[in-house]
Amino acid sequence: MKMHGVKERLACRVLGQHRSTQRKAPKGRADDAGLTADIIELATRYGRYGYRRITALLRDAGWLVNVKRVERIWRQEGLKVPARQAKRGRLWLNDGSCVRLRPERANHVWSYDFVEGRTHNGRKFRMLNLIDEFTRECLCIRIDRKLKSTDVIDVLSDLFIVRGVPGHVRSDNGPEFIAKAVRKWISAVGARTAFIEPGSPWENGYCESFNSKLRDELLNGEIFYSLAEARIVIESWRRHYNTVRPHSSLGYRPPAPAAVPWPAAPPQPASPATSNVASKPIMH
Predict the structure, then answer these.
(1) CA 263 → CA 60, 77, 81, 258, 279, distances in Å?
(2) Which of 66, 109, 150, 244 has the fewest CB atoms nearer than 10 Å to its CB?
């Protein structure tokens, strides 16, 4: 066979190509259509997730796929990777001059902080976020127009009964947290308080990181017409965060995985996950 007057063998040798490239047309994988549909569905549902987190969700749904293939389809479809967040200071110092309390096991260190939001009419509401620093699980989000030290004690007492008393409770230095009643109560039940230094939010980095995810993935994109609606929607997101959302620091696994894996988009004919998730309803 000749190519424009030049033998195929010679042309391939000069170009450094294998001769089979001139005979076999490139073919895409049989399941590309199903995988692409699932990627687009998940990217649409979770607009602030990048392709790595989407890959973790696909694997949970039954896809045997690596991150490079997902990235290729991600860019091919023109999907946008969320902008990188601003860098934060280190929680632990390399020179050991100021070593902070570091969680070593579940229920060792809990931390909590306040986040502010608004309903549609412009009225403020506050959220008290409480997390386990080791597992990254969000234990509770208490929502009300105003939150005081008595509300902190109420939330902690309920969780202490259900989960046991943690070793330490880390918190901010705001007026709600330095209340004598809170400190006295925490000490009375056998836990220790760990207040961060003023002007050093990175010392409460686990809770600060959670707060930023809550605002970025939910609060910035939702309009709440009432306090009751805010409570329902935020609690739904908290459960999703704990049981479904892949966490990068946990190897792209959720803090408290649900018993049933999260299904991806409605199964496509070529999807390998059809036998596993076709009969399972999509959770919202």
Answers:
(1) 7, 21, 22, 12, 10
(2) 66
C-alpha 63/C-alpha 29 separation (Å) is 14
d(Cα 63, Cα 38) in Å, to the nearest integer? 10
Question: How sure is the predictor about 280, in pLDDT bands with cuts at 50, 70 and 90?
Answer: very low
Residues in CB range of 13: below 8 A, 6 or more apart: none
**Cβ(166)–Cβ(197) under 8 Å?**
no
DSSP sequence for 136-180: --EEEEEEES---HHHHHHHHHHHHHHH---SEEEE--STTTS-H
Residues near 244 by beta carbon (within 8 Å), at least 6 away in sequence: 57, 254, 258, 262, 283
- Measured distance CA(145)–CA(182) in Å, rounded: 20
Q: Is residue 253 packed enough to be buried (19+ CB in 10 Å), middle (13-18) or exposed (0-12)?
A: middle
Buried b (16+ CB within 10 A) or exposed e, 272-281: bbeeebeeee
- Each residue of 220-236: pLDDT tens digit? 989 999 999 999 999 99
Q: What angle do CA 241, 120, 234 make, to 5 degrees?
A: 15
Residue 237 in tokens: 């997101």
Please identify which residue in the block is written with the tokens 């030049």. Answer: 6
- Per residue in 6-15, pLDDT tens? 777 888 888 8
* 3-class secondary-structure state, position 239: helix
